[in-house]
Write a structure and sequence with these properties.
Number of strands: 10
Number of domains: 2
Shape: globular
Structural class: alpha+beta
Oligomer: single chain
Mean pLDDT: 90
Low-confidence stretches: none
CATH topology of the largest domain: Alpha-Beta Plaits
Amino acid sequence: MKRSQIITFKIDGQDIAAREDETILELARQNGIRIPTLCYLESVTPWGGCRLCMVEVKGTTRLFPACMTYPQEGMEVSTVTEQLTTYRKQVLDLLFAERNHVCSVCVSNGACELQGLAYELGMTHVGVPYLNPSLPLDASHPYFGLDHNRCILCTRCVRVCDEIEGAHTWDVMGRGVDARIVADLNQPWGEAISCTSCGKCVQACPTGALFEKGKSVAEMQKRHEFLPYLALMREGRDGDSEQ
């Protein structure tokens, strides 16, 4: 069996030892270094869509997504700089302006990762014009709801439903500002025959786009700590079936 080579590099001046198959984001988290993310979720395939985890690498003017970048020997990575803070605020500006994120009336107020990052980065206002699209609310499911106004297209629900639950109820339809999360072939959620009503997608959602009916604001804290354990269990079942 081929062993992974151990390399050494720096994150924010801290010496880090890493295997070849570990990303900068994984290594940062293992060493207590905070890098903001929205689309990343432990136990499912990284997507690199939100671009909030971009980092600087000494010797190049490019920015690199930490969740998709593997370190190289001697690399020096910076996660907090004036350039990165400005860039991340611009990304959040666009996310808030694209849909209708009104925190004061959202069921996830106080338990929303998008809102939390805005507080963390010191956002006081949105610096670009709002698009104010007229988007529907799908309340056809007996237990859950989908509010497209609060969706940021992170695809966490898509990947969890596919890779953890194995149902692949969710996917993305359309492009650009017209992109939408859809169930099955753009059916109302309550009519999606592939949905197992497990609720994993709701727990994985970083905003109030997917929510549990009947829950108050104080009860909408999302829980996705169980996903890594489910992923390990699934890998174990797959391994048993191959024997």
